[in-house]
Amino acid sequence: MDPIQLFNIVLTGLLRGGLYALMAVGLSVVFGVMNIPNFAHGEFYMLGAYFSYFAYTNFHFGPVSSILCAALGTLIIGAVMEKTLFYPLRKRSKKNWIMNTFLLTLGISIVLQNGAKMLWGNTYRGITQYWPGNISIDSFKISNDRVVGFSIAMLTIAVFWLFLNKTRMGRAIRAVSQDETGASIVGVNLNVIHTLTFALSCLLAGLAGAILLSISPAYPFMGLQPLYKSWFVLILVGMGNVGASIYGGLIVGLLETFSYMKFGAGWQDVVSLAIIILILIFKPRGLFAKKGVKSISE
């Protein structure tokens, strides 16, 4: 393999992995803080794509404004959903919380998929490009949308990390993830933290869907593949490990790109699943998990 081809594969893998990391961070934080295995995470990705599409095409917003509309829309829906569904469940269901929330999120996923199908049909709704043009590196061309999308994803993750580590509310979220009872004793409002955490998780998924609209058009069942990729990353790095989710997303992106180039279409999922199975057998806590530590800031 010549150096130019290797560079192209690495660059493509990193750009793909950046969006996986954005999705995985959202999924990881809601599991790390609330112990919710959110199987509706992909549907917020789908909603973000639809919101951005309608903002861009129907209301003629610019690219950044359309993406921000998607982020705001999924943030609000996530907050409402947490208050109307998860909060009552938390009050009534102390036992089997993970199983109950798994079933609830699975139900939410089905409702959102079919609701989108009823409202907007099975038609693919996409755009040509947010930012026209390509960046040429030797004989390799990559669209501006991919580069800008990766940049937005990395910037968002950086801002989110600063929020978790440098703000009072972020430190409260981390405290709840480590010891919910202790955080409550020192005055942290658990209801506020839970609602905010779930809403921010939905925002990150919606943002990823909006960023990729020109590459992956909006469609009612489009969230399934990003959901799988997010879970690949979480299993790889360890459940609830937000910091390592960034590295995990990049690793999965590189792994898939190398598999595709080496073995052909379809093999990227085979290789990813094979590695996940091996990790579950030999290191079930994940490659970056620390024994006895549960922290979303690792």
From TrEMBL:
Organism: Desulfosporosinus orientis (strain ATCC 19365 / DSM 765 / NCIMB 8382 / VKM B-1628 / Singapore I) (Desulfotomaculum orientis)
Broad class of where this protein is predominantly found: membrane
Lineage: Bacteria, Bacillati, Bacillota, Clostridia, Eubacteriales
UniProt KW keywords: Amino-acid transport, Cell membrane, Membrane, Transmembrane, Transmembrane helix, Transport
Protein name, as recorded: Branched-chain amino acid ABC-type transport system, permease component
Locations listed in the record: Cell membrane
GO biological process, alphabetically ordered: amino acid transport
GO CC terms, sorted: plasma membrane
Residue ranges crossing the lipid bilayer per the database entry: 7-33, 53-77, 97-116, 147-164, 198-219, 231-252, 264-282
Pfam family, one: BPD_transp_2
GO MF term set: transmembrane transporter activity
PANTHER family: ABC TRANSPORTER PERMEASE PROTEIN, BRANCHED-CHAIN AMINO ACID TRANSPORT SYSTEM PERMEASE PROTEIN LIVH
Protein family according to the UniProt entry: Belongs to the binding-protein-dependent transport system permease family. LivHM subfamily.
